[in-house]
Amino acid sequence: MSFELRGVSVRYSPVLPQLALSDVTLSIAQGEQVALIGPSGAGKTTLLHTFAFARQLDGGSLRALDAEPWGLSSSGRHALRSRIFLAPQTPPLPPRQRVVTAVLAGRLPQWSLYKALTSLFKPSDPQAAYDALAKFDLQDKLYARVDRLSGGERQRCSLARLLVSNAQALLVDEPLSALDPALARQTLDVLQQEASARRATLVCSLHQVELALAHFPRIVGLRAGRVVFDAPRDAVSEQMIAALYQQAGRDREPPASAGAEPGIVAGRGLASGCY
Ligand SMILES: Nc1ncnc2c1ncn2[C@@H]1O[C@H](COP(=O)(O)OP(=O)(O)OP(=O)(O)O)[C@@H](O)[C@H]1O
């Protein structure tokens, strides 16, 4: 099993009454490809960070790659973490760095400190960075500076890092926010082909509901920190989507229908695609 959450709660601060995740139970098998959808503030990012044990639990338990990260020593946790790639919503790319160096940073978890430092001055494997960038049609940017890239180029450059890593679990947070529709589809194709080729688990948060349903066999709907549905894409109806996004952002209480069949909301359908 890649990830198993049992009754997990996460709170950002003890002074904040609300839970970012509330009693979440979810299992994801190795090699599965899952889309997380839900309104802004639903807890998608928090869930991805929880999988990658970047956030402490306030309750419940987590298993990741068949280990219990919070029961390990910090060095054990670090070793386990190196097998997971978390691509954040805002790519942390140093602006003055060359793209080749930024992409090869995807290998940092596998490198010694010496190799990491020397690679800053002389990229250790520019061919690997070139090949990864080529999958996103960005190979001509190999030696460009990161701050000369467009937002969409930067986003794909950050995902090229994932391609050079050797992670067995790929956690990707809103990878399409700066991309046009054609690039968005291409980017998802690249991520999914890569995950399939290395039999890695892929969990991807998306605001583009249509793309989530078109690309991912399993869809998890989150709202107000809770799993509202977890279903094969063919079982996800327009009504479920409408209920998931109903009054998005206006409450942090679990919807009355959480865990049950959601109600029908008129006027919004899958055709509107991005909620
Ligand atoms: N650093 C933080 N400190 C305090 N609260 C936070 C922090 N990060 C997130 N939250 C809160 O936790 C909840 C879940 O946020 P999260 O970022 O996981 O949602 P999301 O579904 O990823 O949203 P979006 O789609 O807008 O990125 C929200 O209520 C948010 O305000």
TrEMBL record:
It comes from the Bacteria. Residues 5-249 form the ABC transporter domain. The keyword Nucleotide-binding applies. Keywords: ATP-binding, Cell membrane, Membrane, Nucleotide-binding, Translocase, Transport. GO terms for molecular function: ATP binding. Coiled coil: none annotated. This is ATP-binding cassette domain-containing protein. It comes from Noviherbaspirillum album. The lineage of its organism: Bacteria, Pseudomonadati, Pseudomonadota, Betaproteobacteria, Burkholderiales.
